[in-house]
Write a structure and sequence with these properties.
The structure holds 2 protein chains of 2 kinds. By secondary structure, chain A is mostly helical. Chain A has a domain at about 10-40. Chain A contains 1 helix and no strands. Chain A is rod-shaped, with a radius of gyration of 22 Å. Helices cover about 70% and strands about 0% of the residues of chain B. Chain B has helices spanning about 15-35, 40-45, 55-65, 65-80, 85-100, 105-110, 115-125, 125-145, 145-160, 165-215, 225-235, 250-265, 270-275, 280-290, 290-315, 320, 335-345, 350-380, 390-415, 420-445, 450-460, 470-475, 480-500. Chain B has a single domain (about 5-500), classed as Sodium/glucose cotransporter, CATH 1.20.1730. Chain B is mostly helical. The chains are: A mainly alpha, B mainly alpha. At the A-B interface, helix 1 of A face helix 2, helix 3, helix 5, helix 10 and helix 11 of B.
Chain lengths: ~55, ~500
């Protein structure tokens, strides 16, 4: 049982640690991706004009 | 044992209400404003297939990290103890495996699909597409039937609203308000709003969860060693060893791996993150970068529940309520975690946490709404319509569908009582689609001999999952064996019927 307790302790440390690292990447780069997404969708809007432009794909 | 309603008062104060209200207003406004970017079905349903890695990962994590997830993880944590941590571990490994290999998801993205059932028409035929869409939509909407009530239960107990008297009425009122808010911003902004709001929610939620974790492991006598010691005294080895006969056991853990893996590649709201990514490589990496999120979305709520177990079992007022006769009362488990957080986290901080968890509620609902509405409008209604349907019409169908799903959830939530094992309910309803679709998807992508008859029969094979809700069967056969058996049946059906009824002319995928 003691081995399991130690095991869970380290699993939590590794799991939480890796999540914090991923958050530090995702938050700033996610903001950049939002700006790029708006730019891309803006381009599409200019080229497509209106919703009635027909079916995509 | 009944408690005086005032016992349910928490630290939630006016400042916390301001934080939560400002947050809700902000999110709904963002959702409504993003309507200006919607110009095509692809914009509305898969955000123009232009989402970068970090944003897509935030949305993937936000979708999977729902308030219902937090609630059922905490219920399992409260009832099963540390053994439950095997499930988050399995979820991490499943996401990591998809992220490393790109299994199925890279292929789906490279086909430029808008929904998963579209693949079945490209690879098989229209009948398979419509069948998969009907099963997916039914299973999916039924699956999210408990989401609003679980979320409202959390809000009611963590904010202290339960102290106001009739807790059932308050839960239903909170549920109604939350559903209306999510419907408004999802209807207006579509997938663009979902992705952007998911990002905001990911940020708020990450901060909120870490705040909650800090207080859960530092408040008064709450610390890792004390929590371990309380569980050890009350429940012994099964609470730490997930393979113990009185715990989950091997078959359940293997089934969980298969379920998480299948969810990643075939479950609409999750697998659609492969479709929103800007490239097949981004789709694959989303699962890799998102794998730690798969761990924490289940592990942190479980730790909240461990803390609740330890704290309430030693509390003079609450020990009799949560532990009548010294044994944990499973039916009270949904109240334990939100009540603990409301009691131990100080004013101001609790507002941030609740805003974060409300974010979890909204980010899951919006993704599920858009996923099921897209499937219904594009894969069920459109194929039966004569002539070409404009993007405007298709989006209108999706918007009407979202409102109807919202109405269904409201009625279902008001009528249906929460079962003791929410996770079992979700696993069974999810399996109805997942088992057959996973077989048909994997076969369709990687096996040239997979035929339309084989795929069709495999999809119908998922209905076997309904056996899982028949009590005598559940009592005699373990859930793990039942779940794994259902996946095996669908794969066997695919192989047998594909070989027996091959396609006359091979279609390429």
């Amino acid at each position: 049982m003691d081995n399991w307790i130690t095991f869970w302790k380290y699993i939590c440390l590794i799991g939480f640690g890796s999540y914090i690292i991923s958050v530090l990447f995702i938050i700033p780069f996610g903001a950049r991706d939002i700006l790029r997404l708006f730019k891309e969708l803006g381009k599409n809007r200019d080229s497509k004009g209106s919703l009635n432009s027909g079916k995509e794909d | 044992m009944k408690l005086d309603p005032s016992s349910f008062l928490t630290n939630f104060s006016n400042i916390d209400w301001i934080i939560v209200s400002v947050y809700i207003l902000f999110i709904v406004t963002v959702g409504v404003l993003l309507n200006r970017y919607i110009r095509s079905t692809a914009d509305y349903m898969v955000s123009g297939r232009a989402t970068g890695l970090a944003l897509n990962t935030a949305s993937y994590t936000g979708t999977e990290l729902g308030l219902v997830t937090i609630m059922y993880a905490s219920i399992e944590g409260f009832n099963r103890g540390f053994s439950y941590l095997i499930i988050p571990m399995v979820a991490l490994v499943a996401a990591f495996t998809i992220g490393q290999t790109g299994f199925v998801v890279s292929k789906l993205r490279s086909l430029k699909l808008t929904t998963i059932p579209e693949f079945f028409e490209k690879r098989f035929d229209k009948k398979t597409r419509v069948t998969s869409a009907i099963i997916l939509a039914l299973a999916g909407i039924l699956n999210m039937g408990l989401f609003p009530k679980m979320g409202a239960t959390f809000m009611t107990y963590s904010t202290g609203l339960a102290a106001g008297g009739d807790a059932t009425f308050i839960v239903n009122l909170v549920m109604t308000i939350l559903i209306i808010l999510v419907v408004i911003y999802t209807v207006m902004g579509g997938m663009v709003a979902v992705i952007v709001c998911d990002y905001i929610q990911f940020t708020v939620l990450s901060i909120g969860l870490l705040v909650g974790l800090y207080f859960s492991l530092t408040f008064e006598n709450l610390n890792w060693d004390n929590i371990v010691s309380v569980f050890s005294d009350k429940m012994g080895e099964p609470v730490f060893n997930p393979f113990h006969p009185d715990s989950y056991g091997w078959s359940y853990n293997i089934w969980m791996f298969v379920v998480f893996f299948a969810t990643g590649i075939a479950w609409g709201p999750v697998a659609s993150r492969a479709l929103t990514a800007k490239s097949p490589k981004t789709a694959q990496r989303t699962f890799l970068l998102g794998s730690p999120g798969q761990f924490i979305r289940l592990a942190i709520p479980a730790i909240f529940a461990f803390a609740a177990f330890a704290w309430f079992s030693q509390h003079p007022t609450f020990s009799g309520y949560f532990f009548p006769d010294g044994i944990a009362d499973a039916s009270k488990a949904p109240q334990a975690m939100p009540l603990l957080l409301g009691k131990i986290i100080p004013a101001g901080f609790i507002g941030i946490l609740v805003a974060g968890l409300l974010a979890a509620f909204m980010s899951t609902h919006d993704s599920y709404f858009i996923a099921w509405a897209s499937v219904i409008s594009r894969d069920i209604i459109s194929p039966f319509k004569k002539g070409t349907i404009s993007d405007k019409q298709e989006i209108l169908y999706a918007r009407i569908t979202i409102v109807l799903i919202g109405l269904f959830l409201l009625i279902w939530g008001l009528w249906y009582e929460l079962p003791e094992s929410v996770w079992t309910y979700m696993a069974i309803t999810g399996n109805i689609y997942l088992t057959g679709a996973t077989a048909a998807l994997i076969g369709g992508v990687y096996w040239k001999k997979a035929s339309r008859t084989g795929a069709f029969v495999a999809l119908l094979g998922g209905i076997v999952s309904l056996i899982g809700i028949i009590p005598p069967v559940v009592d005699k056969i373990s859930m793990g064996i039942l779940g794994l058996g259902n996946f095996a049946i669908c794969f066997i059906l695919l192989v047998i019927f594909s070989l027996a009824f091959p396609d006359k002319q091979e279609k390429t995928g």
